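From the shared-data thread, chain only:
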Amino acid sequence: MALAVIPRAPQCSIPRPDDLDFDVGVWCLVLPPVSSPTAPRGDWKTYPHMSSKEMWKASMGARAAEFHTYLEMHSVWINDCAVCSRQGRGMRADFGAHVAGPYHFKDLGRLLADGVPIDDLRGDFWQQTMLAGGAARFNHADGAVEVCRGSPPSDSAGAGPFVAIVAVPPLPGEAAPAAWPRLGGLPDADLPA
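Structure, as tokens:
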């Protein structure tokens, strides 16, 4: 008797655009930033997920991997990184592994300046892709994920409006802030050139 192995469908908490109960053409925050600043209008140094390569990999790597899984479920593959392409680099792995890696971390750090609030820079770090029924985007500075039903707003390729709508409720014991902070220099120490 032969055994058949049936692959299990990947699990993902990000909803399909058609499952959103929001107006067409509006970005809906479905996964909040992976951390919050420790000071109001803080620069990159105030965000815990940017404090070390290990914290980056643990928080942003997991979030990027989930976004990658979501895109795969929609038969979409990203082959260019919105951050690393600015530094003349390509992607060295799938989206999730690439974002978690030291080269991406270093390239993002080159784009974030000390003393400049992430709020002022966050809009420049969206990676957007079209899907059946809408669009999805990932923020390279804070890990936020937004989904839009239908065509996204025309200004969404860059510093579009930040939509503080949470489509996925917080986990038990987790409080959602009234408005998510917006996100900028990461430490280069001991990373390869």
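The radius of gyration is 17 Å.
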